[in-house]
Amino acid sequence: MEGTQQVIDLGDKAEYTLGRLDEASRSYPDIDLNPYNAVEAGVSRRHAKITRVGDDRFYIMDLSSTNYTHVNGEKLEPFEPKVLDEGDDIHLGTMKLIFHQ
Fold this sequence. Notes:
Blueprint: E1 15-19, E2 31-32, H1 38-41, E3 46-53, E4 57-62, E5 69-71, E6 74-75, E7 82-84, E8 89-92, E9 95-98
Parallel strand pairs: 1-2
Antiparallel strand pairs: 1-3, 3-4, 4-7, 5-6, 5-8, 8-9
């Protein structure tokens, strides 16, 4: 669905894995991106993790994904946390997400 936007609420947990649910490989991410054409976008089964610290600080970390995680055009090194700010562009493979607190 080109040009559509969906809101994915992170809720109150401290940590969320983003990826693709795949029962065959027993991959159960906290946020399943399959409904948003994750396979076609190159999203890994366990692609990235968003961590909340306190009430207003968020970090994203690439989980050694096949097609990388980028924040505002910067490729993240695997397992190196990056602070997220309001309006940051996140790419998981070619899937674009916009971070809002």
